[in-house]
Design goal:
Elements (H helix, E strand, L loop, with lengths): L1 H9 E9 L2 E9 L5 E13 L4 E12 L3 H17 L29
Length: about 110
């Protein structure tokens, strides 16, 4: 019960967006130190063939205030590329020396343990 009370206390604003078979939840929350952050949750209804029941598959990201500007700039650049085919200008302030091509996103949950 404490976790529910904690979540109720920290949730500032919430918006759900239905998009086809997915629903996106945008939740503004606040840390106990008064810092606001955003959680974005994608929820998709799936069917489990083993037990014949539906379930919701969820993916969540946390976006903190100090990252809003860069995240928004990156997202807008990618959306613009999809719509127009124009690649965004590289951000000269970013260090792109690290290669992220070998990340296995399927196994990220195992890193939490």
């Amino acid at each position: 019960m404490k976790e529910f009370e904690f979540n109720e206390r920290t949730e500032i604003f919430a918006k759900a967006v239905r998009a086809g078979k997915r629903t996106y939840f945008f939740d503004v929350r606040e840390t106990k130190h008064g810092e606001r952050y955003l959680t974005i949750t994608e929820s998709k209804k799936r069917f489990n063939n083993d037990n014949g029941k539906f379930f919701f598959e969820k993916h969540k990201i946390f976006l903190y205030n100090e990252d809003f500007e860069k995240f928004t700039k990156g997202l807008n650049g990618v959306i613009n590329f999809i719509e127009t085919g124009e690649k965004p200008e590289p951000d000269l302030d970013e260090d792109y020396s690290q290669d992220f091509s070998d990340i296995d996103f399927e196994n990220l949950d195992s890193l939490k343990e």
